[in-house]
Amino acid sequence: MTQVDFYTHVSNKLETACLLCVKALAQKKRVMILTPDAETTARVDHALWTYKSTTFIPHVRARHPLASVTPVIVDHDLAGVEHDDVLFNLRFDTTDGFSRFQRLIEIVGTDEDDVLAARNRYRFYRDRGYELRTHDLS
What we know:
By secondary structure, this protein is an alpha/beta fold.
């Protein structure tokens, strides 16, 4: 069953996604960063390229020819993503297909709308019996 981790009180969601991505890569895990839309996908793509000058986070979009061999996929659609290690959900809602991943990461900012949406997602996973862990990054 998918392990669900909520990282809460995050001041910068993109920076936190980059940091957690680096940690997952160090553990030889493949990562899918699911965004709500094309604009956010582009922002995450840029954040991964510019995260730290000493850190390289290899990533492509889901439909890129090298997606099957690239450790990090960034897209607003799960279609075509073959691996099932780690899913970062940056959307305000749950997504079909999350349960095929070994681990689901939910990054929750400090904005009231983000917190409310995260509470709904938390209840959704809890009510379905998923193992939930919370990490307060305040």
